[in-house]
Protein 1
Amino acid sequence: MIQRFETGPRMSEMTVHNGVAYLAGQIPEDTSQDITGQTRQVLEAIDALLAQAGSDKTKILRAEIFLADIGEFAGMNKAWEEWVPQGHTPARATVQARLADAAWKVEIVVTAAV
């Protein structure tokens, strides 16, 4: 069985199958904020989605982080390190990418156990 959450005409924000939650790329709502603020927004959205699936950030298996400007790596990491629980850090990749909206500084995709 596949569960779909916040399903729209183009995509679902999350799907769950065989005890694994797959999140769509999460992006900031308030693009006026700096990289640290945008990252915090994205991490809050991830927390909310994982809660819907009965999971949380301690169960994240993998994170893929896309930055519009790799020069903002330190600012993103500031928010990430405040958020991620020590001892539960997931496998992670961070790359620079042209994001779909030029105002987005960060997009994060996670896969987590449920």
Protein 2
Amino acid sequence: MTWDAALDIAALVLILAGALLCLTAAIGLLRFRDVPSRLHAATKPQVLGLVLICLAIALSLRSWPVVAFLIPIVLIQLATAPLSAHMIGRQAYRNGTIDRSHLFADELADSQRTPPAAGG
């Protein structure tokens, strides 16, 4: 087996794994009932799936300009997915759509009881 064939097989496996992770993320968004579970499905497998697909593209094309193009894509995804999940989760908490009995720690409850100007 040549080096090019091995890289092509590795790229194929990475594409399939990334596509499978993206598919499970989409299914999780549709099937999960509560907001924290949906946020987990929207961020973790989706980001890993995108990273695997970008890695497969880099292996398949074997070009440094392509790698230079893919690195910002991955970094932006790694930066924006947790931020958007945090904002969605916080808004769901404020709207009351999260079942607070299932939360292990509830730091926002303390901040809502104490007024911001109270100094506590």
Protein 3
Amino acid sequence: MSSKDEKNLSRVLDKIAAMDEPRRSVMQQVHDIIMAAAPDLKPRIWYGMPAYAASASAPALVTLRNDERLNLALTEKVALRPAGGTDGTLMPAAWYFESIDKDAEQRIAAIVRSAVA
């Protein structure tokens, strides 16, 4: 890992550490899921949010937000695909959560892997 990557990772971890509990623990868990699902992604701060990109200079693909609700989002830089079915041409790009169970963990990992595919 380059020193720039280490510095960016440190900034992301500091941002998460500054959150109040129980959100801090949940966001740390989501960060860990993202890094396990796509270990080549580079964490960094993007528009004030923890984010993950293919490289330190590439646009972010995945972001985490700590607003009224916690949020995992894919950016417009991801090759989004229409959902089909009853959702037709709508493209899922954001998911809100308050806690993470085993099913949510697996779904987040799948979402992140689809973003880097």
